[in-house]
Design a protein that fits this description.
It is a single chain. The protein is 50% helix and 13% strand. By secondary structure, the protein is an alpha+beta fold. It folds into four domains: 106 residues, Arc Repressor Mutant, subunit A (Orthogonal Bundle); 211 residues, P-loop containing nucleotide triphosphate hydrolases (Rossmann fold); 71 residues, Arc Repressor Mutant, subunit A (Orthogonal Bundle), CATH 1.10.10; 142 residues, Orthogonal Bundle (Arc Repressor Mutant, subunit A), CATH 1.10.10. The strands form five sheets. Strands 4-3-2-1-8 form a five-stranded antiparallel β-sheet. The chain has a five-stranded parallel β-sheet with strand order 10-11-12-9-13, with helices on both faces. Strands 5-7-6 form a three-stranded antiparallel β-sheet. It is elongated.
Amino acid sequence: MKQFDSFRLDTSNECLWNSGVQIALPPKPFAILRYLVENPGRLITHDELLDALWPETYVQPQVLRTYMLELRKVLGDDAGAPRFIQTLPKRGYCFVAAVVEGAESRSAVSHRTSVPNPISTPVSPAIVDREQEICRLRALFELAAGGQRQVVFIAGGTGIGKTALLDAFLRDAETLSPAIIARGQCMEAIGRKEEYYPVMEALSQLCASPDGERACRILARMAPLWLPALGRDAETGSPSAPHAGSERLPGELCGALEELAIEKPLLLVFEDVHWADESTLGVISALARRRTPSRLMVLATCRLQEGSADQPLKRLKQDLVMRRLGVELELQPLHRQAVSQLLMRELKQDDLPAGLDEFMYKRSEGNPLFVITMLEHLITQRYLVHEGTDQAGVWKQRTPFLEMDPDLPDELSQMIELEIERLSPGDQRLLEAGSLINVAFPAWAVAAALEEDTPEIEEACDELAHRLHFVRRAGRDELPDGTLSAFYVFAHGLYREVLYQRQSESRRARRHTRIAERLGELFAGREANVAQEMAMHYEAAGNWSRAASVLRSAAWQARQRRAHGEAAALLELALRAADNLGDVEAGVAREIRADLVAVRESMHASSAQHGVTEKV
């Protein structure tokens, strides 16, 4: 546990506390903060941070600025007068606050145990790292059982574990207290075509449940037009032909559900309400706003930021939470230790193959579904093999995981692809262009790739970030001409990977070339500052000659400044690019080797001269 000011960094459980309150922090910002806190009082260069957190991966330095903005917001820090993170222009960062070692804070323990939770049953072993969420749901269920109606939105990205959490809680609820449970599933293809689809599914379950006879009697008496729509007789509740009669009134249904909840609490569950029709959202709204006491709890799962800013679900959720008529539980990625626990559970062994947890954590970024899917892929591809009998056998790796770069599992790729295909062609085009840069991408680069106007692209990216859970705006960056360009970040690197691979090689090549050329225009006269980035785009376009030329030119400028070490590093990269050229341009590689030899001789001479000066 590391403590600075009112903050405590729990490195064991990978979370941040402030005065006893846990702060949600995604894996990468946490990793950056941890590295800074563990190295206080000294300069941490950009390269050191990038090498520590993205080993063997080229990442733009702008990514660090994006995450630093996020960290400063969380810490309440001011870049102009820093209390925690000091920026040293063009060099790096320094953590300036005093850091002390300490045991887990009493306030953190107090916070975890202070949640009203009269139920002391252990959390279900079917899920990991969701203890706080389960305890919160239990506490809200107790309030509902006492007559204080509850509406809860369980929100998170694809695969984060919304349904798993819900299932675990419902299993507990069924064993801890007698309750009526009814579930309705919203469907993308049906949700906007058939009114009340998930409501009708839940009512059908109610009528077929052990409490079905009573439910039918209450509906027949208080909401008579709803039973015929279920294919049941409004007078007897018995099955009959479906009836399309007069308009069904949500108010009547709300009254009937409240009546049903008098004897036992009623848990009404709607999954994927981001696909719900407005009529279903109207029922949820009415149930939340009615003032009479009721032993009713509505649980709704939904994706984060799904849909436009004026989407009915967003308006409803924000309004209910603001008025304290509803609660939102936003699920965060799993911590590193939780990923290890999940792997142990899936493999049914306590000792994991060396490096597996680290590899899976970095690759999945803590998404439970991604962890499980990639684990199955490693087993299918025989990167992981089971040795011994079923009872006494263990899983072992065939190749060190940190040296592997396996393909993205087809199942995971297809799942992400389906999400992308739901978007308009224009949205897909923007995201594909953004994927050419890296996890973080600037609007100017997207505009360059698509040969469009930067302000218009920035406006389109802003609108996209408001609608999608896997893209967010991360700040602004100043360009050499003084203009500002917005930056955006993919919430998960796998989305960026799928978007990149779905483009044809020729399209990618054209777009990479445009970005490289735009970089050259922006940094005219200072191309050496972005030589490696330009070369990366030229290499991705298959233009090895241009890549080598850019790097060689930057090396020449470094030699002029007598920065021989920098020049040598650039020439080595240029030589690597030139080695991909055919026999026709083989002379280019020879010239670069000659330049490299000359630079190394200059370095040796300079070192020798320095030694003579010291002796004197």
